[in-house]
Amino acid sequence: MKKATFAALALTLMAGSAIAADLPSYKAPPPPPPPIMTWTGFYAGLNFGVGFYDQNSSNAWGVGFNNHGGSRAGVVGGGQIGYNYQITPMFVVGIETDFQGTSIGSGAGGNSFNWLFGLPPVTTATLNWFGTVRGRVGVNLLSPQLLVYGTGGFAYGEVQRNGWWNQNSTVQTGWTAGAGAEYMFVALPNWSVKAEYLYTQLSGNNNNGFNFGWGLNNVNNRTRFHTIRFGVNYHFHFGSSAPVLAKY
Fold first, then answer.
1. What's residue 168's pLDDT?
2. What's the 3-state SS for the chain?
3. Long-range contact list for 241-247, CB < 8 A, 24+ apart?
4. Are strands 167-184 and 191-202 parallel, antiparallel or unpaired?
5. For 51, which of 76, 112, 176, 214 could close a Cys bridge (C-beta 3.0–4.6 Å)?
6. 35/241: higher pLDDT
7. Which pLDDT tens digit goes with each residue over 93-103?
8. CA 204, 208, 210, 214: dihedral to nearest 10 degrees?
9. Burial of 212 by CB count in 10 Å (0-12 exposed, 13-18 middle, 19+ buried)?
10. pLDDT per residue over 121-167, tens digit each?
């Protein structure tokens, strides 16, 4: 009787093992691949740097030759907002606008004199503020984190000119162009830092008047200046999950 019971138990266990072997195997699905790092999206940030007038930014002549191209370097600071769109893993296009306060100035320099009285028709210029609206075209050369770009577009700014007899302030318009590099952090993919150079020219008219001595004094009011800026941006990544940096 005992032998029959053990035999029946053994057959039951064997049958259960065979049935279990035939059942389908259930495994957890693999995790989805991480999203690839992208520059696409809106961003905003702050910047700070230095600037100086081009040597030929403002010049004048009269009976004597008066070159007022001397430059006084100043600080530049402000903010920017923009939008990037990543066309391919390597190429990025975008648009950016910024607004800057400055202390850039110029004054009479070089050879400045008046033949009759020895007095120059002194004219100094100060760039109080300027802004730009620029396109950007960039490429990820070394890694998806590093964007090297060229930029250019519309520029405007308020230029104040002070002479012995008059003072005027006017908003001038023109163009700007330059280049820069921006780096997005691996651990903080919403944040990036950048360095940028811009050359800007604002158009102006020639002002004619008489200096203290003989004859005509002609002042060219075009304003040309250089800026070097360092900044930080926060990327909002609207409509997408936080990016994860991936290798090529």
1. 76
2. CHHHHHHHHHHHHHHHHHHHHHCCCCCCCCCCCCCECCCCEEEEEEEEEEEEECCCCCEEECCCEECCCEEECEEEEEEEEEEEEECCCCEEEEEEEEEEEEEEEEECCCCCCCCCCCCCCCEEEEEEEEEEEEEEEEECCCCCCEEEEEEEEEEEEEEEEEECCCEEEEEEEEEEEEEEEEEECCCCCCEEEEEEEEEEEECCCEEEEECCCCCEEEEECCEEEEEEEEEEEEECCCCCCCCECCCC
3. 241/35, 242/35, 242/189, 242/190, 243/35, 243/36, 243/37, 243/38, 243/189, 244/34, 244/35, 244/36, 244/37, 244/189, 245/37, 245/144, 245/145, 245/184, 245/186, 245/189, 246/34, 246/36, 246/37, 246/144
4. antiparallel
5. 76
6. 35
7. 999 999 999 98
8. 110
9. middle
10. 455 778 999 999 999 999 998 889 999 999 999 999 998 877 666 67
- The token pair that represents 36 in the structure block: 């690839």
